[in-house]
């Protein structure tokens, strides 16, 4: 699933290509893609101009000049492509937005898990999906005073807690593994066993990882590409994710992969010990 750096990279690519463009036609080929009334979605979006493409955690926010925003969640394998070439549209193209310059903004999703919803721009904070999101890295709200109570009130393992988007948002399986390795915290450590230093380190390293990942265009592990069709490079800098059986870059002990909360989890059994 694309995480915050990948979605931010998609946002930047889309903004560069579609900001200021008028949507002249909307075709929805997979009705379940739209949360809400499909005909109303098409009616309100057709004729509107894209004023900006924003982001909140893993949600893309396509702002329109008529006071509405398309909230788009890519889920596992959703992707956008901008093209005037008819061959760019295939059986996995589930939403096609024709733009006033002749190009099309095409939403592809092999697994059909992605969703779009039209929402009043001035009332985005009331949207249930947006409303429940916790602070995200690189934001003004991503502070020790905000994060400590959110994290340490839980008795569950820290891996599961950090993946909970209501605690802190934007990080998924890849980057949580990387952050926990860097701060030397075992993924199965109960969240309420962390020290203040652990929490502060998680905050600082999460910010660092997000900055680095965004600069690298995100991580391409399976199928992720940005809005220009390019893959990310952050996977070349990952230290533990997908590295099971290889030496820990810090101590040389083999990286182990286990299941935590049903998610594949990578860590160093020597550097990261359960507290």
From TrEMBL:
Catalytic machinery residues: 2 (schiff-base intermediate with dna), 3 (proton donor), 58 (proton donor), 263 (proton donor)
SUPFAM superfamilies: Glucocorticoid receptor-like (DNA-binding domain) (SSF57716), N-terminal domain of MutM-like DNA repair proteins (SSF81624), S13-like H2TH domain (SSF46946)
Residues involved in DNA binding: 92, 111
Alphabetically ordered keywords of this record: DNA damage, DNA repair, DNA-binding, Glycosidase, Hydrolase, Lyase, Metal-binding, Multifunctional enzyme, Zinc, Zinc-finger
Domain FPG-type: 239-273
Gene Ontology MF term list: 8-oxo-7,8-dihydroguanine DNA N-glycosylase activity; class I DNA-(apurinic or apyrimidinic site) endonuclease activity; damaged DNA binding; double-stranded DNA binding; zinc ion binding
Cofactor: Zn(2+)
A Pfam family it matches: Fapy_DNA_glyco
Reactions the enzyme catalyzes: Hydrolysis of DNA containing ring-opened 7-methylguanine residues, releasing 2,6-diamino-4-hydroxy-5-(N-methyl)formamidopyrimidine; 2'-deoxyribonucleotide-(2'-deoxyribose 5'-phosphate)-2'-deoxyribonucleotide-DNA = a 3'-end 2'-deoxyribonucleotide-(2,3-dehydro-2,3-deoxyribose 5'-phosphate)-DNA + a 5'-end 5'-phospho-2'-deoxyribonucleoside-DNA + H(+)
Biological process terms in GO annotation: base-excision repair
UniProt entry tagged with the keyword Cytoplasm: no
InterPro entries, per the entry: DNA_glyclase_Znf_dom_DNA_BS, FPG_cat, FPG_Glyclase, FPG_N, H2TH_FPG, Ribosomal_uS13-like_H2TH, Znf_DNA_glyclase/AP_lyase, Znf_FPG/IleRS
Enzyme Commission number(s) from the entry: 3.2.2.23, 4.2.99.18
Co-factor: note: Binds 1 zinc ion per subunit.
CDD domains: EcFpg-like_N (cd08966)
The keyword Transmembrane is annotated on this UniProt entry: no
Limits of the Formamidopyrimidine-DNA glycosylase catalytic domain: 2-114
Family that this chain belongs to: Belongs to the FPG family.
Subunit (UniProt): Monomer.
Name of the protein described by the UniProt record: Formamidopyrimidine-DNA glycosylase
Protein source organism: Companilactobacillus nantensis DSM 16982
Lineage start: Bacteria, Bacillati, Bacillota, Bacilli, Lactobacillales
